[in-house]
């Protein structure tokens, strides 16, 4: 090995002149790649910020917000305006539920029958319903098909063609009644009192129930 060979070269390089060979350091490619990625990200952020500033100065942000809320009426919007605009989806103003036409008690003929062992029950109920304005038909003991066979508060029996609203008006006078139909032709309704019957609903409470039936509350408005 020549004395001019650098230590550790193992004789691979032989120096023939008066100068050592130049040793270059390995390139740091990782640092270069990271620097390029950082530059690209910084440029992207700068570009996005510039676009946002342009929108603010041009007023586009306000227009977009107005457009987004165009189809969502305020709470003060009337149901007629909402329907005229064709907005019936979520967020629309609640539409007024139409009132229900209930028959007056005087338009409902009630036959009162006692299916319990308690004497005088049908007559007592007749007197009270008569005070409330109902038209009273027959009063007496229940037919054999129902006598001592009604465990609940009572049963309303009528024709299949009987107005359902008439059942509702009569059912508001006592709680726990069920309804049935038979083959009768007339519009009268049988009230058959059962074992669980105690007394009629207080008139004030019955009137409140009828008012709620006649004027149902509107459905709640959806959220925008």
Please render the helix and strand layout as text:
Blueprint: H1 29-58, H2 60-68, H3 79-84, E1 109-114, H4 121-131, E2 135-141, E3 154-158, H5 164-171, E4 177-181, E5 189-193, H6 203-214
Parallel strand pairs: 1-2, 1-5, 3-4
Antiparallel strand pairs: 3-5
Characterization of this structure:
With about 220 residues, this protein is α/β, with parallel strands linked by helices. It has 6 helices and 5 strands; from the N terminus they run αααβαββαββα. The model has no long low-confidence stretch (mean pLDDT about 80).
What overall geometry do the principal axes of the alpha carbons give?
rod-shaped
Structural class: alpha/beta
Largest sheet: 5 strands, mixed
Q: Widest sheet: strand order?
A: 2-1-5-3-4
What is the H/E string?
HHHEHEEHEEH
Taking Cα atoms only, what radius of gyration do you get, to the nearest Å? 45 Å
Strand content: 5-15%
Task: Give the overall pLDDT as a whole number.
Answer: 78
List how many beta strands DSSP finds. 5
The number of helical elements comes to 6
Oligomer: single chain
Helicity level: 25-40%
Distance between the termini: 89 Å
Contiguous low-pLDDT stretches (5 residues minimum) are none
């Amino acid at each position: 090995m020549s004395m001019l060979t650098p230590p550790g070269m193992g004789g691979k390089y032989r120096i023939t002149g008066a100068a050592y060979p130049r040793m270059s350091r390995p390139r740091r490619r990782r640092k270069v790649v990271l620097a390029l990625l950082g530059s690209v990200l910084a440029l992207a952020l700068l570009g996005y910020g510039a676009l946002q500033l342009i929108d603010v100065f041009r007023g586009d942000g306000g227009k977009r917000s107005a457009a987004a809320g165009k189809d969502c009426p305020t709470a003060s919007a009337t149901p007629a305006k909402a329907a005229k605009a064709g907005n019936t989806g979520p967020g629309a103003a609640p539409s007024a539920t139409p009132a229900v036409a209930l028959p007056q008690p005087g338009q409902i003929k009630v036959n009162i029958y006692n299916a319990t062992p308690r004497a005088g029950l049908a007559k007592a109920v007749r007197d009270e319903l008569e005070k409330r304005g109902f038209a009273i038909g027959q009063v007496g003991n229940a037919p054999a098909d129902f006598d001592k066979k009604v465990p609940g508060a009572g049963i309303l029996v009528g024709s299949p063609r009987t107005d359902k609203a008439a059942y509702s008006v009569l059912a508001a006078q006592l709680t726990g009644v069920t309804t049935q139909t038979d083959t009768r032709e007339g519009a009268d309704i049988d009230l058959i009192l059962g074992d669980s019957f105690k007394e009629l609903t207080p008139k004030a409470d019955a009137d409140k129930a009828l008012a709620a039936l006649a004027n149902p509350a509107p459905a709640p408005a959806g959220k925008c």
